[in-house]
Design a protein that fits this description.
Strand content: 5-15%
CATH architecture of the largest domain: 3-Layer(aba) Sandwich
Number of domains: 2
Number of helices: 13
Helix content: 40-55%
Radius of gyration: 22 Å
CATH class of the largest domain: Alpha Beta
Structural class: alpha/beta
Number of strands: 9
Strand order of the largest sheet: 2-3-6-4-7-8-9
CATH superfamily of the largest domain: Alpha/Beta hydrolase fold, catalytic domain
Shape: elongated
Order of helices and strands: HHHEEEEEHEHEHEHHHEHHHH
CATH topology of the largest domain: Rossmann fold
Distance between the termini: 42 Å
Amino acid sequence: MTAMQYLVLTAGAALCVPWLIKRWKKGTFKTMLGSVLWLLALSFAGLIVLLYLFQARFVYFPQKNVLGKPSDIGLGYEQVELTTSDNIKLDAWYIPAAQAKFTVLFCHGNAGNIGHRLDSLAIFHSLGLNCLIFDYRGYGNSGGRPSETGTYLDARAAWDWLVENKKNPAENIIIFGRSLGGAVAANLAGQSRPAGLVLESCFTSFVDIAKHYYPFLPVRIFARFDYNTIESVKKSPARCLSFTARTTKLFPSKWAKSFTISQACRNNSLQSAAATTKDLLNQDRNTFIYGRPGLTPYRPARKITDYT
């Protein structure tokens, strides 16, 4: 049971105690039992309503203050303002690499902002890749409020900027998604023809994850989000590379295992990196992914472009 689940159930039980005592003094055990069952049903319904109304708060954890920038780690970059099709302004960075052929379009996870991904930017730069990273609406200095449709539009705006402003041919763009960003990246790959799709520590779908954390609730009925990575990958013509760390804490291995997503790839010519990269598997996803002072970036033995 998560801390939030425990808090909700404890609070509900505490509110019921005075009422139950009053009923106990007035009625028989049979009446009391009926009252308990009625209260349990009411609490269950209340929990469903609560989770439905505040569902977005369990999905998005944006931070507004961008505390770091690429120049802090010695990277030259271009400050970019993207405009989505629904006229939302997004904050983004474009980090060029010398004589780079490929460009990474980076869709980050559901927490923090682009300032927390400096280590990842350093890795891509060291691999000789250009990189465009953007903040979803409601994150960092981007306007608007996050939503599933909104994150898809945000990624599309980043893609259009690379193609139209930077004149990057689609076949030279690699879409990279991490965690929630993996679902966003897969959706974009299903609507475009990138050089490749790379998914790191991604889940199969929002419903699968919700069912794991709330097995006692009919999540498929009241889920307001889809984020169906599997279905998006099936629609994408791009070659797909999926990998995760065995010790990932956020997603259970049943839904985070790379081969689950890899099997959905239309072009299954790539092996899951998690099956061969020992150093990566022995890392905790939360240890090596997010930027921390003194952290040595993980450098894989093979370049991402080796898979394209």
